[in-house]
Design goal:
The protein has 6 helices and 11 strands. The protein has 198 residues and is of the alpha+beta class. It has a 3-stranded antiparallel beta sheet with strand order 1-2-3, with no helix packed on it. A hairpin with a 5-residue loop joins strand 6 and strand 7. It is globular and about 45 Å long.
C-alpha cells in the first residue's frame, strides 16, 4: 500500500491499496474519531464538463488539461478510467469524435470528479480514490478555495476502507434498484453490505 500524507500535518493518514475486485481504494492508516478530518487536499484539476459533451467542450477541457504541469497531468491520468466506453458519455458528439487519449481524459474526469459548491467539478489525487458505499463512513467537506476534506462520519480503525457516497444523501434512502440506477453513470453495480442484503 502507498502511504499518503495529509496537507495539514504531513502525517500519513491514508494508504492507497489494491482491492481484488474494485481497483484501488483508500484505507485509514490510523484510527479516526467521528468528525475528524482524514485527508484534506486541493483539486488537481477543475472543470465544468456538461452532461452532453460537444466537440468544443472537448477542445476546451483538453486545452485546460494541457496547461497543467506534467506532474498533475500524470497524477490525474493515474486515476481510474474504464477501458470500455463510459456509458454516460458515449452518446455525446464530442466523445464520439474524440481521440483515444481525449476519451481517456474525459472518462477519467467523468468517473473521478466530485461536484464542488461553486458549480464546477474537481478531481483530487487522493480523495477521488475513495470508493462508494450506500453505508458511507466518510463524507466530503468543502472550503471556498476548492479544497476538499474527507471527514469521518463515525469512528474508523486503522486498515478500514474509507468509503463515501457518490449519490445524494436523499438517494441513499431509496430502494436498492433506485440507488443502482443513480450509480449507473459510474459503470458499476454497488455490492456494499446494504445492497447485498435481501
Amino acid at each position: 500500500a502507498l502511504p499518503i500524507s495529509t496537507m495539514a500535518t504531513k502525517k500519513t493518514t491514508v494508504l492507497v491499496a489494491e482491492t481484488s475486485d474494485r481497483g484501488k481504494c483508500l484505507l485509514a492508516a490510523t484510527r479516526f474519531e467521528a468528525e475528524e478530518t482524514i485527508v484534506r487536499e486541493s483539486a488537481l484539476f477543475e472543470h465544468d464538463m456538461p452532461r452532453v459533451v460537444s466537440e468544443e467542450a472537448v477542445q476546451s477541457i483538453c486545452a485546460d488539461f494541457d496547461r497543467l504541469p506534467s506532474s498533475k497531468q500524470d497524477a490525474l491520468l493515474n486515476l481510474y478510467c474504464s477501458s470500455e466506453a463510459v456509458p454516460s458519455l458515449q452518446d455525446s458528439a464530442g466523445y464520439i469524435t474524440a481521440s483515444q487519449d481525449q476519451r481517456r481524459l474525459l472518462g477519467t474526469l467523468k468517473l473521478n470528479s466530485i461536484n464542488l459548491p461553486h458549480g464546477k467539478a474537481g478531481v483530487f489525487e487522493v480523495i477521488s480514490r475513495a470508493n462508494h458505499s450506500c453505508q458511507p463512513n466518510a463524507s466530503f467537506r468543502f472550503e471556498q478555495d476548492s479544497t476538499c476534506s474527507l471527514v469521518a462520519l463515525r469512528p474508523l480503525v486503522a486498515g478500514e476502507e474509507v468509503l463515501v457516497s457518490y449519490i445524494k444523501e436523499g438517494d441513499l434512502l431509496l430502494p436498492t434498484s433506485h440507488r443502482r440506477s443513480a450509480l449507473s453513470m459510474w459503470n458499476f453495480d454497488c455490492a456494499c453490505a446494504r445492497c447485498a442484503a435481501p
